[in-house]
Amino acid sequence: MSSNDLKSTEVDDYISTQSSDAQKALKELRTMIWESSPYVCELMNYNIPAFALVEGGKREQQIMIAGYQKHVGFYPHPDVIEKFKEQLVGFKYAKGSVQFPLSKPIPKELVVGMVKFRVAQLTQ
Over the stretch 60-87, which tens digit does the pLDDT of each residue have? Predict the structure, then answer.
């Protein structure tokens, strides 16, 4: 099975409905997630794009993303936010989410680190 078999046309459709700035940011996040995990399967969960990080991954084993007017939401897991909170200074974040403003570049190194940390948690 190729990675394209695990990509979702529903996720494509969701991204296509966003503003051009949000589309660009969501596509970047999507690519970063795919590049950071040995297994990814896309789906829609709570009407937003979700990425199962282990085969058959349920909500607790997924990372989600969403587009908004002025930012994109990144939902890795509360453990991930806690682990990376010092690196999240300067971003609006909560227990299980972080907002990346559309007016700034997505911090690739941070996102990749967060995804890899979550994958490691799930595959230990």
Answer: 999 999 999 999 999 999 999 999 999 9
Give the residue from 33, 6, 23, 25 showing the smallest Cα distance to 114.
33
Nearest Cα neighbor of 100 from 27, 36, 16, 10 is: 27
What's the average model confidence in pLDDT over 28-50? 95
CA-closest candidate to residue 109, choices 90, 82, 76, 87: 87
Q: For residue 96, is pLDDT > 90?
A: yes
Domains of the chain, with CATH numbers? 3-117 (3.90.1150.200)
d(CA 31, CA 106): 12
| Average pLDDT of span 34-46 | 94
Dihedral sign, Cα of residue 80, residue 96, residue 48, residue 106: negative
